[in-house]
Write a structure and sequence with these properties.
The protein is an alpha+beta fold. 18% of the residues lie in helices and 40% in strands. It holds the Pfam family Ribosomal_L25p.
Length: 216
């Protein structure tokens, strides 16, 4: 069973925009802690420590928020808002989990191997980039690897083909395609009717002028 990754955190007294800006300037990321049985609380975490924690725990890993008053909360990072221009974290949603209860989570699908169909001129079409799974919080996989090394042109891998171990199960439709190899697109040149192509637009048509005059 995976260990929770510790992360120091602080409670905030205000949701004021100026307060959030101050925290970001001082190297913290404002956030909120909540859960099914946890009242929503404003919090903040050190930016650098949060980055290191995410690298260690992974996207679906369990994080233990440790507060200076001795409180400890086991959470997952439910959502992260970023500023793409500044490349900074703006806000984090921490969802407190019950380690004894199954929960749903979206897990990244990672394709591994090289499809023979691609060497034959086909194109690998990655259809599902995430899949929903149900598991205990500490058993949620970091990613789902899908081996495409036996896919020829026209072959597909469906959810039903994926092997989930005993720790989690898929929520998706078993017949949903995850990846397929399709023939490369062949550009189709439309054949133009030379007579029609040579015929100019009837801009100066008398009937068009009459219609215009009637509408005026």
């Amino acid at each position: 069973m995976a260990q929770a990754t510790p992360l120091e955190a602080n409670f905030r007294n205000s949701e004021d925009r100026a307060e959030k800006k101050r925290l970001r300037r001082e190297g913290f990321v404002p956030g909120v802690l909540y859960g099914k049985t946890t009242e929503s609380k404003a919090v903040s975490v050190p930016n650098v420590a949060f980055i290191k924690t995410m690298r260690e725990a992974g996207r679906n890993g369990i994080v233990e928020l440790n507060f200076d008053n001795g409180a400890k909360h086991k959470v997952i990072v439910n959502d992260v808002q970023t500023d793409s221009l500044k490349d900074t974290y703006e806000h984090i949603d921490f969802f407190e989990v019950d380690l004894t209860q199954d929960m749903d989570a979206d897990v990244t699908v990672n394709l591994v191997g090289e499809a023979p169909g691609e060497k034959e001129g086909g194109v690998v079409s990655h259809l599902q980039f995430t899949l929903s799974v149900r598991a205990l919080p500490e058993e949620i996989p970091e990613q789902i690897e899908v081996d495409i090394s036996e896919l020829n042109i026209g072959d597909s891998i469906f959810v039903s083909d994926l092997k989930s171990d005993k720790t989690f199960e898929f929520n998706a439709d078993p017949e949903e395609a995850v990846v397929t190899v399709v023939p490369a697109d062949v550009p189709v040149e439309e054949e133009l009717d030379t007579d029609a192509a040579a015929e100019p637009e009837l801009v100066g048509d008398d009937s068009a002028e009459e219609t215009t005059e009637d509408n005026e």
